[in-house]
Write a structure and sequence with these properties.
With 210 residues, the chain is α+β, with helices and mostly antiparallel strands. It is built from four helices and 13 strands. The protein has a single domain, classed as Beta Complex (Beta-clip-like), CATH 2.170.270.10. β8 and β9 form a beta hairpin. Bound molecules: zinc ion.
Length: 210
Amino acid sequence: MYLVKIFNSISGIEGDGIFAGEPIPKGTIVFYYSNDDIYVSKKEFKSLPDLKKQQVYKLGVEAENGDWIVTDGDANHSCDANILSLFVDGLYCDIAVKDIQIGEEITIDYGLFYSSFPWQMKCRCHSNNCRGVFGSAIAVDFQAQQLWNSRISEAVDRIHHVSQPLFSRDDESAKVLTLALRSKHSPRIFPYIKFSMICAYPDNGDEIMR
Ligand SMILES: [Zn+2]
């Protein structure tokens, strides 16, 4: 579920995209899996008709156990994405890694996603650092990882300095993620070799209370 106002419109990258309906400062947690998102088990997924499967592919994210989570928006890929994936104590969220202006397309780097099957796509992001192709069948190069890590580190440093809509939500997943974020004093970023799982750990166990 998106925590910021978004709207769907024609993308400059491909097909439909999602766009910021309000200014989003760097460091804002923009997305998390809420109790309202739809969970499709690996077994259920296998029994779906092809058309439904395609919808799940389009709007869903596959977890490592083969289950799928289908949510309320589908950001296009960009090699110069303005949001990136972050795992906090194993909990998934997306964080704004740039200040996003109202009306700007929200983009994420699909290179960070887990997938149990190999796929690749030609990239049309037109950014200066475009990798040309992306997908789970493509090894993510060192430069891309460095870019993710530096951007995520900077954004994580802003988490407790910007307004977080997440912190005032009262569903169970939001509460757990809020607690995880508030218990991090100085998050360290750990790149995974592929599908970068990025975790934040406390360096001294201090609690941040705000
Ligand atoms: Zn690209």
